[in-house]
Amino acid sequence: MIIPATKDDRSMKNLIELGSMGHFPLFGHDWTNEIKNIKRSRLNGKQKERVKKIMRSLLEHKTLAKKRIAVEALVEADKLLLQIAFLYLIETKIMDKGVELH
């Protein structure tokens, strides 16, 4: 898993849980349009380390509003890496749940 193992990672796990239900409070409304154009690829080791660093910096912020501001302040390349990793974590969470009968 890409999430850094810290005692404050509960907030990131909560954001991933919300994302698995279709709610993405960390990103603005336009990010879903941007994400459609992303070429699906695996992150290499250097990119994974960069995502860990970004997530650690997000975990330093206690409120969602401050986390959103931090995401908006990222350069586009870092924001893209974060979005790819975040979607990967959401997909993994959904796949781990297995098939639910309704």
Oligomer: single chain
What fraction of the residues are assigned to beta strands by DSSP? under 5%
What count of helical segments does DSSP give?
A: 5
The SS-based structural class is mainly alpha
- Strand and helix order: HHHHH
Roughly how many Å apart are the termini? Answer: 29 Å
Mean of pLDDT:
80
* Rg estimate, integer Å: 13 Å
Low-confidence segments: none
How would you describe this protein?
The chain has helices at residues 10-20, 31-35, 45-59, 64-73, 76-97. Helix content is 62%, strand content 0%. The termini are far apart. The protein is mainly alpha-helical and 102 residues long. The chain is globular and about 35 Å long. Helix 3 (45-59) crosses helix 5 (76-97).
Produce the secondary structure layout.
Layout: H1 10-20, H2 31-35, H3 45-59, H4 64-73, H5 76-97
Helix pairs in contact: 1-5, 3-5
Features:
mainly alpha; 5 helices; 0% strand
Quick summary of this structure?
With 102 residues, the protein is mainly alpha-helical.
